[in-house]
Prior knowledge:
Layout lengths: L1 H8 L9 H11 L6 H20 L3 H13 L1 H4 L4 H4 L20 H27 L13 H21 L11 H9 L21 H31 L6 H14 L1 H7 L4 H7 L12 H10 L4 H4 L2 H4 L2 H8 L5 H10 L5 H33 L11 H8 L16 H6 L1
Helix pairs in contact: 3-4, 7-8, 7-9, 7-10, 8-12, 10-11, 10-12, 10-14, 10-18, 11-19, 19-20
Amino acid sequence: MRALTHWLCGRTEPRLFPYSAVLDEFHRVGKHFVEKSLLALLDGARQTTAGRAAGSGDAATRQLTDFLDIALDKWDGRYDYRSYLALRLLRLPCGADDPAPAADPTATRQARDRLLVRLVADTLAFELAAAAHTTELFPQHRPGPAVVAKRCRLGVRAASPALARLGLTGADAPATAGDLHAVASDLAPAGDPPLRLSMLPVHVTHDEYLFIRVLQSYECLFAGVAEELQSAVAALNGSAPDAAVDRLGHAGDLLRAAGPLFSLLATMQPESFRTFRQYTEGASAIQSRSYKLVESLCRTPEADRLDSVAFRSVPEVRARVQGGQSTVDEAYRSAVSDGRLTGPGGALVAQRMAVFAGTLGQWRRTHLRVAVRMLGSQPGTGYTEGTPYLAAVSADPVFTAVPPEPPSAGPTERRCA
Ligand code: HEM
């Protein structure tokens, strides 16, 4: 690891860190199999950077700190879902110190939509490069041309709602994976870490790339949904509760429009999944902070759920609930009983809640079907019994104040069945 030794012997400038050389080595064998000697050198780099971070805190130092945090998770024995997905490098929420949602939703919504498009476009670019033999990355279990074509079709569909929200519709909307990649390359915000730093699979199976990017895309969406729900709660608790209509509507739209992401994931080869998941033990979406925030912002979880592995896996969200976090369910009930939410405004809030509940229920059922297909009767990596856990929680009510409105069975749900 000459480049890294050279860097360590020099002025250890974070902006000159040999990312490409380090990534090449991680990619050659998979994160689970990286040589201890390289990890020890990276640990040295981390100590050097920690000294700098305390003093400067500039963007290059922060990027390197975050990268090393993710690269060394297995070495430290703290590998989990958040480090597996490199959420910190994607600037997605992953801990108690996450910033509060911005008052003006437009900029945040657009930033999330851009990230989602870039994640999907990058997935398809990798599929095309592998099919064209222009990359040697992750060579095991490459899919055939029909699967690659299907992935490209589904990926373009999965990105199109976010593109439409960004104003790219009609003739401006990308029609192929190649077009999507071209559009996405203009959407990278200046100063953000390059996307390639957030791809550290544990193994060299081709489909792990797709798996990671789809999970990251959903994390991006859940983070957006959580923010919308937080703002809906604030509106319902305030003097203009009707403002919750837009927030609840946008939360439902985000989740509903994401359906094709599951169709994309459903093209994963179960054999590939079984291969790389041998090395993902301990990283499960049960640790998704944003998903549990969504669940607990809808209504307060019952005591047994709060005390189960589901919420014990996200201690900071559990603490928020125990600290009396307000929810859409109770804020809606109070707004109605106080007489602050009446007439057509009240009916519209209830309708948006019902649609959101139906959409989340549909997400849970589709997730369960994909999990059954990929996992069969194996236990989960989050230490549950696996799909029986998912089946049990998929029928949990989203709200108690309003029943779900059954969403129409869209093409996504039928395809994943
Ligand atoms: C191959 C595909 C997938 C399989 C086999 C799978 C399997 C599972 C299993 C078995 C669990 C239970 C917890 C555990 O023991 O790990 C779980 C939980 C969860 N999964 Fe997945 N999953 C898949 C894809 C996804 C995707 C794409 C997402 C999107 C982020 C996702 C989000 C979640 C969430 C949020 C939970 C926690 C649910 C709860 O605690 O109520 N999963 N998954």
